[in-house]
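Table S7 (text form). Paired inputs.
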Amino acid sequence: MTKPRTLRLDGFLPYRLSIATNMVSDIIARAYRTMFGLNIPEWRLLAVLAESEGITQLELSLATRMDKVTVSRAAAGLVERKLALRTPNAADKRSHLLSLTEQGRDLYRQVAPKALALEDAVLVDFDKAEVAQLMAMLERLEEAAQRLGP
């Protein structure tokens, strides 16, 4: 007869992922707040908007995995700071498209190298093959989570 597994947080993958994510996110949040006055949701929207010509808040929610309220607040903050522009959506009159203003694109061009430098600092002890393997494993974890729930 096999002994039932015992839950120990230090060996529980969801917990370990959460701790690692929170630690990295806290470092990045402090850096972005200090250097650019951005919180994490604003930074995520800025990055997604930089890769598009115009996107709805619903699409932003799906792309960032953030809830609608968080996306709405972050979007309002970017619009208020004139980093993003809200325009009517010709394809759906009930929604608007968000896009970066030139000021928003300028800020993104300043933030992106800092983001990459922070990523490099976090991954300094990993070689390229390990980083590729980690990214592949994260993708597989995301796919498994997608299969398990909405």
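Next pair, protein 2 of 2.
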Amino acid sequence: MIRTVARKEMLEIIRDGRFRWSAAITLLLLCGALAMGWQHYRDVASQHEAARRDTRQQWLKQGEKNPHSAAHYGVYAFKPRMPLSLVDPGVDPYVGVAAWLEAHKQNEFKFKPAQDATALQRLGELTGATVLQLLLPLVIILLTFSAFASERELGTLRQLMSLGVSRSDLAWGKALGISGALAMLLLPATVIGVAGLALTAENGALAGSTPRLLLLFAGYLAYFAVFLGISLAVSAKASSARVALITLLGFWIFNGLLAPKAVTDLARSIHPTPSTLQFARDIEHDIENGMDGHNPADSRAEALKQELLRKYNVDSVNKLPIDFNGVRMQAGEEYGNQVFDRHYGALWATYDRQRRIHDLASILAPSLAIRSLSMGLAGTDFPQHAHFSQAAEQYRRLINREMNMDLAHHAKGKPVYMAKESLWQKIPDFHYEAPGLGWVVRNHTLSLVLLTVWCLAAALAASWMSRRMEVI
């Protein structure tokens, strides 16, 4: 009986011109978004690779130079694009694509695409994630709001009950029929998305992205199931199809449009972050005056000098077997690194607390759960940005340490010391390894759990309401 009801429901939906038009438009938008994401990924990935090669060659071919000048010359570290970013660009347009690595400073990321966006683009970018999180749920609502309510109004629901069709079989049949119609819309887009992923992935990246892709696919299926279950439950309970539609549209507006903005503002108010100017001033103050306010840079330098004099049993820096300036600069770098770790660690912890509020708010809106999970699996969430930032910072510290130690061991007694190209070659090329799926899941466990809870709750609500719905 369930199969019969499902077949009948699916045929009615397919024959409905409104479904064909809405499905065609949605499929066109989804495929267009994926195509644009694929093209953008290809362009940006090739640009990053070309820029990475150029900046590496500039570092290697800078000629004879003082090592400290070379440290200030610096290099760029480009954040690699993950293949699944073609579906969900996440925070990438807002956090920058490259870090400038130089002496004395942990710089903010540069080249943020959002800064160059037009006013229209800032209202919302058409991406695969946007279509899947906003438009597909709306299509599900439009297909499902009348599932029980219209049949009750037309009197066909009583006829079905009189034929011996149980409420449970009717609910399952309608759910399967609607799911079949949606599959006709999603399957072509899925094939196009996988094909695009295969074309963008290189050097085994497709195999590495497959587990993420499968979990992302399962997450979106659960998200669609939430709307399907809630729509069936409301249709079974509502007094009319009009009431069901208004109720479901209200939920859709709250879920997709109001809740994300409201929760973002709430998180920022509960856990505010310092302004860029204040953040930079706090770092500069701690480096110059000490993190406790009682250990200025001059005092630290004098303490280092006395320590070296005692260590080598001499009475003047000129008698030291190493260059004091090189050692002093490295000590300054190490103290600066402690300051950076303190302030950036506090900043990232604040962002993480804001993200936790988003995750907890998924109890009220499933869109918040799928947004967080989608960005995480696509490799475009803030935790993975911070992961890359930390890797780039460690590379910066490696460069500065090598430059300062070369000064310490080779600049002694030389009025002008110039290092040769062999020193630049000692610095390995920067290579970033993105975290694995387990790391991502651990960071988004709460979103995954709450999305699962929403899915189960929606299924139970649909079953409960369908069993207790009024026939007349």
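Strands lie at 75-78, 98-102, 105-110.
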